[in-house]
Amino acid sequence: MSVLSDLVAALGSADVEVVDLTAPLGPSTPVLQLPPPFANTIPLSLEAVSAFDDAGPAWKWNNIHTGEHTGTHLDAPAHWISAKDGETVDVIPPSKLVGPVVVVDVRAQVADDPDFLLEPAHLEAWEAEHGRIPDGAWLLVRTGWSARQEDAAAFLNADENGPHTPGPSAQAARWLASERTIAGFGVETVGIDAGAAGGFEPPFPAHYFLLEAGTYGLTQLRNLDRLPATGAVLVVSPLPIVGGTGSPARVFALVER
Amino acid sequence: MSVLSDLVAALGSADVEVVDLTAPLGPSTPVLQLPPPFANTIPLSLEAVSAFDDAGPAWKWNNIHTGEHTGTHLDAPAHWISAKDGETVDVIPPSKLVGPVVVVDVRAQVADDPDFLLEPAHLEAWEAEHGRIPDGAWLLVRTGWSARQEDAAAFLNADENGPHTPGPSAQAARWLASERTIAGFGVETVGIDAGAAGGFEPPFPAHYFLLEAGTYGLTQLRNLDRLPATGAVLVVSPLPIVGGTGSPARVFALVER
Ligand SMILES: Nc1ccccc1C(=O)C(=O)O
Ligand SMILES: Nc1ccccc1C(=O)C(=O)O
């Protein structure tokens, strides 16, 4: 048997399952809210082209209006000033988008503190238990935050001091970018940076350091409870938008039982 | 070794390659042109939200305006009147989107005749050589049409009598929908129906019969020359647009050497 015939057999017998990590993309999908004077992305809207009517008697279809960085989406390097001339989303090698995935579970810490910051020490503790983060792997941070996805206010979790959502510290972002060689960094929250990260040094350090290193960002993931800490395979599928700084993405994990 | 650790090893050694079957999605991506009085989809456009300027000093991002049925895209059953109450794109089970793929090569016939129609006899001849089309497989028709993708006029190939592009006959569409149990039907052209199919009985029979049967359509594929006739695995990734009749999709094939 070959690798792929084994895979097809395992999909058929449900020994390998396809787990959808993608949030539904609709008008109520939460969108990042940056404070003035910064501009924000539009929410998703559909505009009917026809709906079994004179404009199309046998068919229904819509135009889509949305943002590159809306819902479950990939951040390409060219999104950030630290990688201005880096890859746009259409030139990412497909080999980077399919590979091993590891999951770091910080639910307990986030339950106590919505402003929880992931530090290098948490990643080192994970490695002490599970082994070194493999080169080319996707690293996903399981915060439990996707439980809030149906309620945009709870998901964005902002008060007069700004949003309170977990993310990596500047040190952890720098550590991942320079000490390991991951393909991408994924989160359950609206962006890869913590809610308070606009005030960090540098501002939005996950964007700054990870995109600078050519590492991709991946957001608004769900169903991370269905992934093992190691051993699953991720398939990350942004649209190949020509010159795009990112794209809404479908994200599947292959999980073996 | 487990199935997935074998897969990760084979990806690492390039014994399994990720082949991108997706056309780039940009302003010059060809869009279906239906004749009046029918309405058509908008072409893709990007609208800057910020670009390293006052609206976002360290970041660049865009809003996206496009169509559900633009570029490489998936047709969900709810796109067509024959499956009005069928699945929208967001409720397709992920297990249907990852599976075996077979490729039927009709390049020679299409080179002689851009209006070439795939008939049940071509599919039966393929099965005589390669075995029965597996249940749950994606069936892709290799016409060579993607060679025209850089030139929208050549790709749409319309004259005063309408578009001249290959596709299935009504008989072939009915045969696939009723005699076999494929997950989806994919093509290199702008839509799953032939250019002349608006005049067939029923109009657009591939849409009519395949979507009625709960089979998905998949369009504007490229790089089919890199797939074997059997043995590859397809990963089809439409965005889970809530209530959507289809979606631009990323399509990867895993191919073993
Ligand atoms: N944090 C940000 C600050 C500015 C622009 C975008 C972001 C994102 O999170 C994003 O990429 O979704
Ligand atoms: N042929 C059509 C007729 C009407 C509406 C759409 C189509 C498509 O091809 C499509 O789904 O892209």
Automatic annotation (TrEMBL), chains A, B:
List the Pfam families. Answer: Cyclase (PF04199)
- A GO molecular-function annotation: arylformamidase activity
Instruction: Name the GO terms of the biological process aspect.
Output: L-tryptophan catabolic process to kynurenine
Q: Under what name is this protein listed?
A: Cyclase family protein
Give the organism's phylogenetic lineage: Bacteria, Bacillati, Actinomycetota, Actinomycetes, Cryptosporangiales
* Xref: InterPro entries: KFase/CYL, KFase_sf
Could you name the domain of life of the organism this protein comes from? Bacteria
